[in-house]
Each structure stands twice: as C-alpha cells, then as structure tokens.
C-alpha cells in the first residue's frame, strides 16, 4: 500500500524517461469508460429524440381527417429546454483526468489513477513509456474540449467575443452541429473500449506513425514488457554461482 501511494502507476517517478504500468492504464480506461457512455445517451436524446412534449390529456379529436384518412388531433405541446450542467461537470472531470495523467505531480491528484493502481497492485506490471500515452490523452482532451463548447456555446462565444473585441460568434444559438460531438463521443468510446478490453492504444499507434514520418523527433520506444525484477534475480543468481 505504501508503495502504491508513493509511486502510483510509475515504475520510478524519478527516472527518465518515465514508464507506467499498462495494467493500471487499462483499468483506469475502464473506470472512465462511463463518461463517453453517459455522454452518448445525452447526445442521443438531444439529437434523435423529439424536442416537443405532448400531454395526452390535452389531445382533442378535431373531427377531421387528412387525405390518408388519419384522424387529426389538436394538442397543447411544449418544447423541452435542456440543462447541461451535470454533463458539463462530468466533462470537466474527464478533462482533468486526461491532463492529470500526463505528469508525475498531477497524477497524484487523480482519484482514477489511485484506484486503478490499487486494483492492479497484485498483478504483474507491464511497463510502457508515458510519452505515447500523453499524446493519446491529448487527443482525448481535445475531444472533451469540443464537447464542452457544444454544451456551453454561449459561454465560449462570450469568451471569444470578449477577446476579439467584436461579435464573432452568436450567443443566442448553438453554432456547432450536434453531429460533431456525437461522432467524437462514439470515437472516444471505441478508443477507450479498445484500450480497456484489447489493450490497443490508438493514440499510441498514431504517435508512432508521426515519429516515423518525422513529425516528432523523440524516439518512440515500442511498448515493452521488460521484467526488471526477473533480470535482477538472474544477475544475483549468476553472481552467487560465481562465488
């Protein structure tokens, strides 16, 4: 337990480059999987479900029929108003988690990292470099930021207009198509599912490709599973045999 609290999911917080336990990463991705699932239901309701609410008690038969012999009713209907306060806070927490995992000092503030490390402490660790993971989490943070703009268009528009000193974005309508966050949420859900279930990090593969293309100069180490404890044990056995 003390080791978990001291090192979290890092092999050694002071080493360079930094390595983290991929088992804990996958567990954390599973914990955070609830965020895109919750947001997908929210966006489904916002995009595909009718915004009109009809009270069946107010539907009155008008006595007329249309050309297809359907009965015409007169109704009293209201339009739903959406409050995305809860969704906004959930997205802010998810954004915090994406950013917190990028650095040793901020990782200590993450409840999901602590919980994932505790759940993985009895499993043999799989050490992987943190740099490709940072890139993957950066993609996730970008997706989340775009969704935050969709749910709070007036706030973002006011910020932009204030900085620009002019009205660049409207503050009374949502200028972002709902298909943008809906698509991003499903992509995020797929990425996190592959990380959790298959151990396949799409962001890491993209990072590796960009390194090969020369976009990033830092060498992208292949995710490895070097058993340092086993190497140390064999070295001790060899030294003992020599004596």
Automatic annotation (TrEMBL):
Pfam families: DUF4395. The chain crosses the membrane at residues 31-54, 90-115, 135-159, 179-202. It comes from the Bacteria. Residues 87-212 form the DUF4395 domain. Keywords: Membrane, Transmembrane, Transmembrane helix. This is DUF4395 domain-containing protein.
